[in-house]
Structures are given as C-alpha cells and as structure tokens.
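Example is below:
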Amino acid sequence: MNLNKVKTLVVTQLGQDKTGHSMDHIDRVLSLSLEFAKPLKADKDLITLIALLHDVDDYKLVGIEKASLYENSLTMMHQASIPHTIQTKVINQIKRLGYSRYLEGIRPTTLEGQIVSDADMCDAIGANGLLRVYAYGRSKGQPFFNRDVFPTFIKDATAYRQSGSDYTIHHFFDKLLNLKDLMMTNPGKKEAKKRHQYMVDFLMQFFEEENAPAWQDYLTKFLKR
C-alpha cells in the first residue's frame, strides 16, 4: 500500500488548480485531519487516503455526472496497490463528504470519514477559507459583492450543485456560515468555533469598509436565526 504514490498522483491532477482545491488545500486537510485524530482512536492510513483523494472527483472540477463514478480515486488507488477492501472503505466515505451531501441528509458514517469531513469544512472557513472562496469566485469570473443584491437561499442539493452563488459574498450565507454547526468530532468543533468567529469578524469589517450597514444588520440577524 503506497500512500506516497497516491499523493504523487493527486499532485499531478490538482497541482495547478486555481479554484481553491489545489494541493495546498489537500495538504492542509490532511494535516488537520491527522491533528484531529490524535486524541481519537482512528485509522491514520484510512484518514490519509480519504484526505488525499477527497477532491479528485469533486463535481466542481470534473462535472456532476463524472463525479459520481469516482474514476480518479479508484484509478489512483489501483496504481498505488491499495487493497480492494481499503478502496471500498475510502470511496464509501468520500461519497459522504461535502455540503451538498449534507443537504441530502448524507454524512460520513465512520470516525475516519467524520474526521476528514470536519477538517475539510474547517479549511473552508478561517483565513485560508477566505482566500479559497475568493480564489474560486475569481476563477469563475464572479463579482465579489453587490450591496443591492442579498442572498437567495438554496437548500436543495441538486439546485445547490447546479446554480452556485450570484456573488461570492452570498456563498458565506449559502454555506460557509453554516459549517460550524456541522462538525462531527470534538476537535473539529473546537477548531471550527475559532475559525467561524474569524470569518464573522472579517465580514463585519468588510461591510463597515463598504459602508454597508444594511449588510451588517443582515449578518447579525442571520447569525441569530
């Protein structure tokens, strides 16, 4: 079982990504997952595989239809001589990761999957999360903010995957501000709480600098919902 081979293959696919799903993100998720695992009795090899492969079949990168086949993950594990039983465990958890899966009522079922889910969601908030959402919006040519257009919330998974946000700022309300409450492990909950507050502080400061008090009020009410 060659985990280094898997990482090399992931680097080949995601090394040049400009959407916020690059190897920087993968490495942070892996590092944070292993940190979360320290006080927990979890299989670190499984965690490593799930973390390394969790984005190689992401629908935002390969399309919705192809994403459901997990061809990239399976091919990489096969090339790295990962046993079939381990491949099955990894895919079973990867297919349960992500916010759109949450909207479908699907969550990770093993401790390893829950740890990576928490780490992945934590990397969507906090300082690096802000950089990632900005990078993704720019990669799609999406405006960051329009003071006259408030979010229209999407709670259906299919609509969420297909539509995206009109403005990058909407993504905070569509998804990012909800992630703190989706943590499944105690280490994840602790880390997410800290990163969530950083994100709230950023938004309040941004709206102040934009002279947009209506948005500050909107954020305050949103957080109290």
User: Anything to note?
Assistant: The CA atoms of residues 204 and 219 lie 8 Å apart. The radius of gyration is 18 Å. The chain has a mean pLDDT of 91.
